[in-house]
Amino acid sequence: MQNLPRTVTSLLNRRSHAEGLAYAEAVKSRLLADLERLRANGATHAELLAHLQVQEGGGPSNL
User: Fold this and answer.
1) Which tens digits make up the pLDDT trace of 43-63?
2) Ramachandran assignment for 19, one of left (phi > 0), alpha (psi -120 to 50 degrees), beta (any other)
3) What is the model's pTM?
């Protein structure tokens, strides 16, 4: 990172943290909707867990 004044770096960190939290909430909402859809289609507990597992390489499972 460039050598920026402390006030700028502090605000940059706050902003990136806030955007990260907003993104996390959006992902959580999408995953909850996915789980409800799977549950409505008769998915088992194991299938719900598998859907939430993160595969090696960082991507979600393909259920």
Assistant:
1) 999 999 999 997 555 566 555
2) alpha
3) 0.69
